[in-house]
Amino acid sequence: MKGTSDPISYTCTCPASHSPDGGQVLLFYRYYACPPLLSPSHVPLTTSPSTLANWHLSQTTQYQLSGKIRIASEGYNVTVGGTTPNIKAYIQACIMHWSFSNLGLENEDKQRGFFKPSRGCACVFGGGPANIKVTAESTPMGVTNYAPRDWGIIETLPPQEFHARCWGEGVLLLDVRNHYESRIGYFVDPKTEQPALRPGIRRFSQFPQYVRRWMDSEGKEERKEEGKREGKEEKEKEGRNIMTYCTGGIRCEKGVRYMAENMERREGDTIYTRVIKTEDVKSGPRPICMCEKAREAQLWGGERVRVQKTQGSTKARNKTLGYTQDIDIRIKTID
After folding, report:
1. Judging by DSSP bridges, how do beta strands 118-119 and 66-72 pair with one another?
2. How far is it, in rounded angstroms, from Cα 121 to Cα 185?
3. Alpha-carbon distance 220 to 241, whole Å?
4. Which residues contact 238 (CB under 8 A, 6 or more apart)?
5. Rounded to whole angstroms, what are the CA distances from 75 to 52, 55, 234?
6. Under a CB-based contact definition with an 8 Å cutoff, are residues 90 and 63 in contact?
7. What is the distance of C-alpha 90 from the center of its chain?
8. What is the pLDDT along the chain (335 residues), one digit of tens a residue?
9. Which residues are registered as beta bridge partners of 245?
10. Number of H helices, E strands in the chain
11. Could you tell me what percentage of the chain is helix, strand and coil, using 3-state DSSP and rounding each to the nearest 5?
């Protein structure tokens, strides 16, 4: 039904609640044109995404999995949940299927890296059956029939190397997720403590529009004039390390390559990407729940008055708030 989404909280009523192993959620995807490639003998099978959709329907029904699966001729995008034994059986069935060929899933470490299991169950998605559809794109990007000209234009980094390169020179962190995701948490530059660039997009299909408006060469002069008017004109620096990230990886795979092909590039620019997990991010602005308010009241000895932030430059914000604003500091020792 349109206008609905997955619940933000749930009570487990499925068999996972009675299983000593609990349940799991999987999040994985594949673009067939992105290395590692399918076996040549399997490529003709990609022209019939409905056949693959029917296979996933039979598997999710057999193992009582719930979730969302999108199948396209370019690849697939899968998020499913169920009991841990059933999830493990589903993984083994997937590994044996032609659509997973050449992924190198021969050991548990590589399987965890690809399927990305986390705690959860079928109730995360409101219960079964799984929502399986054949679509034009495995994830909608808003550009009809777009396919990267060169999948090798972006270098995908493991977490440790990504974090290490964030300490380098000329780093620009770019969050490819939607604004409501980046509000929950985001990366910050470890040297400058500047937050990642977070496009104010409501859905991924708006990302190409953001690139055209703020990053491509055609809008360069317009951006310069706007920067002058706002007092934000900056000197261009060469050789940026543009570090991009999203949640599961599927948006970066395609969206960042679109950005690389259409943005205003500088000499020496290098673009990297990686997948993040919730423990990677730094919390940003978010609503405060009642239990957190209670903890703050206990810690600070009363209600804290928070000044609402306003948009605009630092100068304009200071002018609005006044330079003589008192700072409320209260300390209470809690035994």
Report:
1. unpaired
2. 24
3. 20
4. 170, 266, 267, 268
5. 10, 14, 41
6. yes
7. 24
8. 344 445 556 678 888 888 888 999 999 999 999 999 999 999 999 999 999 999 999 999 999 999 999 999 999 999 999 999 999 999 999 999 999 999 999 999 999 999 999 999 888 888 879 999 999 999 988 888 889 999 888 888 888 898 899 998 888 899 999 988 898 889 999 998 999 999 999 999 999 988 888 876 554 555 455 555 555 555 555 668 889 998 888 888 998 899 888 887 655 556 666 554 433 444 344 444 444 445 445 444 444 444 444 444 445 544 544 444 443 433 444 44
9. 175, 274
10. 10, 11
11. 35, 20, 45
The b-or-e profile of 212-228 (16+ CB within 10 A means b, else e) is: eeebbeeeeeebeeeee
List the alpha helices (DSSP H) in 157-206. 159-165, 179-182
Helices 108-115 and 84-95 pack at an angle, to 10 degrees, of 100
Distance CA 210, CA 70 (A): 25
Q: Are 234 and 122 in contact (CB under 8 A)?
A: no
pTM to 2 decimal places:
0.71
| Cα separation, 115 vs 91, whole angstroms | 8
List the beta bridge partners of residue 274: 245
